[in-house]
Design a protein that fits this description.
mainly alpha
Length: 86
């Protein structure tokens, strides 16, 4: 399965189920928790914290660029090869 297909499936699931939550930010918190727990199993806690830091830095760079190409998905730039659990 491609990353884009997986994204579409998760996105559709969230859209279908998020309405059952008290507030929309609850879905965001659950998604971060799932990502953190899943990532920690594969890359260790320090590895997933490094990944989150990289995502935050990349997101801030996109916001800082006035002529940013927002169509380019910044998450596809990440290279996780060689990362090992700590």
């Amino acid at each position: 399965m491609s990353m884009d297909s997986f994204y579409e499936e998760v996105s559709n699931l969230v859209e279908d189920k998020a309405g059952d939550l008290t507030a929309p930010h609850d879905a965001v918190i659950v998604l971060f928790r799932v990502a953190f727990e899943f990532g920690s199993k594969h890359y260790g806690i320090s590895g997933i914290i490094h990944l989150l830091s990289t995502l935050l830095t990349s997101s801030l760079e996109v916001l800082a660029e006035e002529d940013s190409n927002r169509d380019e998905h910044l998450f596809h730039k990440l290279d996780m090869d060689g990362w090992t659990p700590n």
